[in-house]
Amino acid sequence: MLKKKKVVGGINYNKSKMAKIRKHFLETGGGGDDRWFSLKAPERGQEAKATIRVLPPWGKSAEGFFYYTVGQHFGFSIGGRNRAISCPESIGKGKCPICIFIARLKNSDNPDHTKLADRIRANRRYFVNVISREEPDKIKIYGTNKKFVEAILDASDDPDVGDMTDIQSGRDITIVRRGSGLRTRYSYRVRTKESSISFEAKDLYQLDKEVDEWLSYEAMVEYLKANFTEELSEVGLKFKKVVKKSSATDDEEEDARPKVNKTKKKKKRVVEEEDENEEEDIEEDEDVDDDVDYEDDDTDADEDDDEEDED
After folding, report:
1. What is the pLDDT of residue 32?
2. What is the rounded CA–CA span in Å between residue 112 and residue 128?
3. Residue 26: which H helix or E strand, with range?
4. Strand pairing class (239-241; 139-144)
5. Are 173 and 188 in contact (CB under 8 A)?
6. Which of 12, 104, 242, 268 is the most buried (most CB within 10 A)?
7. In this predicted structure, what is the pLDDT of residue 183?
């Protein structure tokens, strides 16, 4: 005899349905992604501290690097939440419509456009596997800026310290957070004593595969339109969908779609309505903060709010 499914309000609540609901619940703020390490904002006038251990490269795909880096565009609202969008151009994965938009903004005489270009420019972010000394049994991902990586590299140059990520002789690093939002400041202090660490190599996150949720070109264009409709119009940048191949004649199809390399697989995608012969000079902007002396705990380093990395 077949079991009847529980019906509530006309909906069958089976396991797959509940799994879908749980996924949506987590994505829309009902819960957090436990993979990420973050230091919560302190009370006004106070500071928050955490001591972590940066772990070594995660495997062959790391190519010897303990971090994974990518450019990210901040300043977007997706589903009612602030989100960062990874820039495909920053790692050579193809054109980025946001970078094309930024280039147009920079060429505008409107100072508001210049400010917007700076706000959504690609910021270089660095991701590392870490263990917090408060939760020594959990490996987490920490998304940070170049100052954190510089602190580790500077410390590793010291012959008395060596490789900061070495399992036996590496060092802990203390993160100090002051302020919140746009006023957030971080400083980093390397501990002087060696600190061994124990973990299963198989539990390291494959950062090059797990950090980024890559959006399609089409999706990035849709988020641009949703967030900056007026500005796109002001700079005269339009995006249009390419006509998908249909039952039209060869001549009609040739007129309807852009010129492409016929040796490559043709995919339905979005292209910018621009002169194809015109090349845009797009800068890869990076943070321009002052250098951090890792021995000086009072040195501030600008960093985007890590809460956005949790998204």
Report:
1. 56
2. 35
3. none
4. unpaired
5. yes
6. 104
7. 85
In CATH terms, 33-243+267-275+291-308 corresponds, of 3.40.50.2300, 3.30.70.1270, 3.30.460.10, 3.90.198.10, to: 3.90.198.10
Give the chain's mean pLDDT.
77
* Contact call for residues 310 and 38 (beta carbons, < 8 A): yes
Closest CA to 134 of 164, 174, 179, 188: 174
The strand ranges marked E within 214-300 are: 239-241, 270-272
Domain ranges of the chain: 33-243+267-275+291-308
HSE-up of residue 142 (Cα within 13 Å, Cβ side) = 26
Angle between helices 111-120 and 97-106 (to 10 degrees): 150
- Say how far apart CA 260 and CA 240 lie, in whole Å: 16
Query: Hey, CA dihedral for 73, 75, 76, 80, is it positive or negative?
Result: positive
What is the distance between the alpha carbons of residues 55 and 294, in angstroms, rounded to a whole number? 18
**What are the C-alpha distances in Å from 51 to residues 13, 208, 232?**
44, 25, 44
Which ranges of 128-227 would DSSP assign to H, the alpha helix?
A: 146-156, 207-210, 217-227
At what angle are helices 97-106 and 217-227 packed, to 10 degrees? 40
Look at residues 71, 30, 36 and name the one whose alpha carbon lies nearest to residue 50. 36
- 190 contacts 155 by C-beta, under 8 angstroms: yes
Nearest to 292 by CA among 151, 185, 172: 151
pLDDT band of 79, cuts 50, 70, 90: confident
Pairwise CA distance, residues 100 & 177, whole Å: 34
What are the phi and psi torsion angles at 119 (to 5°)? Answer: -70, -35
5 versus 229: the higher-pLDDT residue is: 229
Token pair recorded at residue 151: 């602190």
| Residues 217, 236: Cα–Cα separation, whole Å | 19
What average pLDDT does range 258-270 have in this prediction? 42
Task: Point out the least confidently predicted range of 19-23, 170-174, 178-182.
Answer: 19-23
Residue with tokens 């994965």: 93
